[in-house]
Amino acid sequence: MADTAQDPRLRLGVNIDHVATLRNARGGAVPDPVRAALLAEAAGADGITAHLREDRRHIRDDDISRLMEAIRLPLNFEMAATAEMQRIALRHRPHAVCLVPERREERTTEGGLEVAGDSDRLADFIAPLAEAGCRVSLFIAADEAQIEAAARIGAPVVELHTGTYCELHAAGRIEARDAELRRLYTGAVLARQLGIEVHAGHGLDFESVGPIAAMPEVRELNIGHFLIGESVFVGLDAAIAEMRARMDAARS
Fold first, then answer.
1. 18, 41, 51, 92: the active-site residue
2. Of 41, 58, 78, 159, which one is the catalytic site residue?
3. Does the annotation count 78 as an active-site position?
């Protein structure tokens, strides 16, 4: 999923973590996240995202191995910036590695990665990943200091955290929501000015995706929990098709 001037289409990465969450709730092998990835591929997704957490609460090591073998789409491997995860990424060499903050007690990723205060370590951490051919992305808040730090350490991609915007939208807090949208837009513009490709994600659904998709600086959205939840009612292919249609409508 490289950034090319010839491809203005907004890409959709589908996160299949919560298919694994459902599987792990009972144990066994079903539902299979690899099957979900293949269905997403057939439905028009541009990439697959999977987060291998340190506690393996959803995606497991074997899932990553099977995804690398089964899918033709690029795999975006989300992970914490730990030595263990670096070793796993270097073994598999996925298309992209997205570094995210991770706390064991959280239910989902909360907030963005602290880059400005940890730039020396992160620069050393991402160097071997880049040398191995992985496209490194940093999942960060749309904060000037974090974006500038990402540029300083040579990250080619940032993924802007849209969770706060989505929460404000769902709560009907229009003024605060619009302020957060302006912050996301300002961050996206700054990142592009610094030569960084911009992705966005976290909490997006049919109702909230439009204003983010409309930002011309954003090249890719990564969406998971909502699509997996919607697929219970309409099927994964229909959920992806509807999201794709809303993204395209907003973009046009």
1. 51
2. 78
3. yes
Give pairs for 163-168: CB < 8 Å, separation 24+. 163/109, 163/110, 163/111, 163/202, 163/203, 165/203, 165/208, 165/212, 166/202, 166/203, 166/204, 166/205, 166/208, 167/203
- The answer to whether 51 is a known catalytic residue is yes
**Tokens of residue 73, six digits:** 């789409």
Average pLDDT over residues 170-179: 98
Question: Angle formed by the axes of helices 61-70 and 33-43, to 10°?
Answer: 30
Question: 159 is written with which tokens?
Answer: 């993924």
pLDDT digits (tens, 9 = 90+) for 88-129: 999 999 999 999 997 655 455 567 999 999 999 999 999 999
Which domains does the chain carry? 11-251 (3.20.20.70)
**Catalytic residue among 169, 202, 220, 230, which?**
202
* pTM score, whole prediction: 0.93
